[in-house]
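User: I'm writing a short report section on ligand binding and want a predicted complex to refer to. Could you take this sequence and flavin-adenine dinucleotide and write out the structure as tokens? A short remark afterwards would be nice.
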Amino acid sequence: MGEIWVLVDTSQGVIRNVTYEVLTAARKLKEKNGATIAAVYVGDEAGSIEEDLSKYGAEKIYKIENPTLKDFNASAHAHALAETIKKHNPDIILAGNTLQNQDFLPRVASRTSSGLSFDAIDIDINSSSTLQVKRYRYSGKSISTISYHDVKPMIATLRPNAFKPVENQTSAEVINESIDVPAENNMKVLETKIIPKERPELTEADKIVSGGRGMANGDNFKLIFDIADSIGAAAGASRAAVDSGFVPYEMQVGQTGKVVSPNLYVAVGISGSVQHYAGMGSSTIIVAINKDPDAPIFQKCDYGICGDLFEVIPALTEEFKNLS
Amino acid sequence: MKILVIIRQTPDTEAKIQANSTQNGIETSNIKWILNPFDEIAVEEAVQIKEKSASEVIILTVGSERSLEALRTALAMGGDSAIHITDDSFADMDSYALSKVIASKIKSIGDVDLILSGKKWIDEESGQVAIQIAEELGIPQATLATKIDLDEANKSVKVQSEIEGGQRIVELKLPALITCERGLNEPRYASLPGIMKAKKKPLEEVQMDSIDVGELGLTKESLGNAGSRLKVDSIEIPVIKRTLTILKGGKSDMVQADEVKKASEELARLLREEAKII
Ligand SMILES: Cc1cc2nc3c(=O)[nH]c(=O)nc-3n(C[C@H](O)[C@H](O)[C@H](O)COP(=O)(O)OP(=O)(O)OC[C@H]3O[C@@H](n4cnc5c(N)ncnc54)[C@H](O)[C@@H]3O)c2cc1C
Ligand SMILES: Nc1ncnc2c1ncn2[C@@H]1O[C@H](COP(=O)(O)O)[C@@H](O)[C@H]1O
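Assistant: Sure. The structure tokens for the complex follow:
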């Protein structure tokens, strides 16, 4: 059996948690077909990533480093990875479903004439080592099981939080791939702004507290931020809260916002529309705080308090603080 | 400027999704179809650019007869002409084949400066078609645009996009492809006069059979579901199994102010001891 590649996602030089999740998922396939798991870094400078990757079961590490790859550019990144794929012929490539991977993997799939699917919540292989993925379709309203047919490599991204990272110490062999990356002159990065986050990223968060139209205004979102901070959660919002100008679009959860699947989702002053639910319905535990006993969210949550959020949230924040 | 907007029809966001009898697709008979919400944003952006500068806006879709409606909506919003590639004979094309077919049509139109698309089709959420078109055409892309500034004189475009943990601004040389994110604009409703006018706008119908797919490195067999690289084995509708523990006597009773502390205590305890989540 050949190789399963796992793309290494970093954020300011640090490996993102989702990479460990994907390494863990890759091991599930390895147990069935004995493939070698290789972590693959594509970028300008990998730094010393060996130790962390070995901890989660990487047996090989390909470092595709080139100064041209400093500013992320889909074509250049696709070129670097596609050429390395052609050289080593991996069977399967897995990666976190990050914005960057969603941006350049379609080009890799075109260049290597392979098959790609995004945002898998589970993966498996059958006896002939064909990859099978499960993913949501129609925004959380259905789950499709999809098989790859006569393509190589089989590429898939995995939804953050779908797999729990489990350590498995190995000692990885490092392979440096030097590759020519032609400078792209039809695309230039003018400005990159990383906004320091006070809270976890929505799509990767383990816990989320979201506010809806019931928050009444933007200032009141301080209540959401406070309760989120008391349990280390990310803060989200419904579309009504975004459209009313309470908070920016980046915070929107739902069919036309972010699709999230944390372990805990707390919906505050959110009615539970079909479109909102489509973005968070796969959360493990859903908690609703709403003053309307007939709010649809109460039909599809695990726990709820029917009450005025302006009374409940401060009290609940106190309780959460006492617990931690 | 020649702007091309690629669009797709999608089930209404309210639609109840059910598996079809063969369990590998959805039941489409009772569904209301709409223009994909992200594609609406792309159409709006094209029309706004046209309103500022003399531009031509062409709308293109690959889809069944039914998707004519989506084209008409886009024309009513202000598109100038439409191209409908009907694929009844090759339903369920994968994004690889689809992008090749669309890219070849774009080449034959010629001189397209800017291609706009939605960030994803909310139905399948393949998220690949537009980027693969850019790859086929050998042009740069910016995805998830929240602001677009065209510089016609310099044949370039500045795009602000969302990236992990922040945003960035890139400059692309035209021709280029941009996928549109919510926040870029507020799509207009098609007005009644707009809808009337749309009926008279040029619409080119292209039969998929008339496209020489061999030239694209594809075979007819590779286009439909049978030749797809990814096949849906089965579809399931997730059943919501939630415990529905609503504090303060179930659905009908709202917690009174003096009971808030007790209810909060109880909820925190349940989350810790029963759900084991905090
Ligand atoms: C094409 C399309 C795409 C969409 N995409 C999305 C999407 O991605 N995400 C999304 O969220 N929506 C989306 N929507 C909008 C969706 O249909 C709903 O309009 C929206 O989710 C409603 O948000 P809400 O629950 O905050 O507001 P409402 O439905 O107005 O609910 C507010 C709730 O707050 C409660 N409340 C009010 N005051 C208090 C208080 N003091 N204490 C406690 N509770 C209180 C009320 O009882 C009510 O249940 C989309 C719609 C369309 C047509
Ligand atoms: N059949 C199609 N015809 C024209 N444009 C399409 C088609 N499918 C997808 N697109 C465009 O590509 C975008 C991304 O779609 P997808 O890759 O399927 O998520 C959509 O928002 C449309 O703008």
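A remark for your report: The helical segments of chain A are 17-33, 50-55, 74-88, 99-111, 221-230, 239-243, 274-280, 309-323. Chain A touches chain B through 98 residues (CB under 8 Å).
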